[in-house]
Amino acid sequence: MNAKLTVYTIMILTGVLILSLASCANPSGLNIVVQEEPSTGIDTDPETGLIAGLPLEGDAIINNPDVVVSDGVEWVGGLSGNAMRGDEDGDFLRITDGALPELTIAGSVEVWVLPEGANYYTGVLHKGQETDFSDEAWSMQFHADRKPYFYFVGETGTSVSLMAPDQIPLDTWSHLAATWICDETNDTTVIKLYVNGVESVSKEVTSVGPARDSTGDLLIGSQLPEQYNATYGHLTFIGLIDEVSLYDVERTAEEIEAAYQVYFPAP
Predict the structure, then answer these.
(1) N or C of the chain: less Cβ packing under 10 Å?
(2) Nearest to 202 by CA among 250, 266, 259, 142
């Protein structure tokens, strides 16, 4: 290549570089439209172990292709923004299995509830969908009248239940949480149930293992997507549900107390 052509080439490349730098300094001249990814209605935070934070605002979660919302669910004013409300048998929100990571060796589930009626055996958060409960992994529910109850099924098929000693009030927001951690070396599993930021009951058991790796869907607001029977229906919670959080770690007592105090700070 001769010298004139070399100089000419360098001048062209220099001009291109200057134009590029000028464009970077003035992005508006590029006419590039940056599109945000649509919200799924499900938040995550790997640093804290949050695999699913569901503020239950309505539109975003309804438009999520992995979510089915039954016709009877209403969106009403909640703790912050909207909450879901079920007042008839079969009102629930259903998240397809596989859309969220499984909670097995360790897990924490948290939820705010405002019961509006009797809630015997009704499901608030339920992992599993079969009417014979053969795929049930864990369930936050009310076993007796408004007494919070957590049911856990280990991979061995052994179940463990924890029930709070006291009822929670009607028409008032309450925070429920459950945690578990499996020490496979020592074959022990520790499960705890919290009510309004305070540990209510805990159990340490052996020969249970991690939570069952269920292929069932996650239901919010009912235990089952199909009727259990004519008497109990879908085992549906009557009231409001808000701020659902699932973690793949065992949350500490301090973290759960802090979650409660977000809306009910200590005096």
Answers:
(1) C
(2) 250
Q: What DSSP state is assigned to residue 100?
A: S
Q: Which residues touch 263 (CB under 8 Å, ≥6 apart)?
A: 79, 80, 112, 173, 175
What's the CA gap between 123 and 133, in Å, rounded?
13
**Residue 93 near residue 221, CB atoms below 8 Å:** yes
pLDDT in tens, 178-222: 999 999 999 999 999 999 999 999 999 999 999 999 999 999 999
Alpha carbon 85 to chain centroid distance?
A: 17
Do 97 and 116 contact (CB within 8 A), yes or no? no
Strands 50-54 and 43-45: antiparallel
CA dist 193 and 186 (Å) reads 22
CATH of domain 43-261: 2.60.120.200
CA 176 to chain CA centroid, Å, is 13
- Identify the burial level of 93 via C-beta atoms within 10 angstroms of its C-beta, where 0-12 means exposed, 13-18 middle and 19 or more buried: buried
Q: In the numeric block, which tokens belong to residue 135?
A: 């795929």
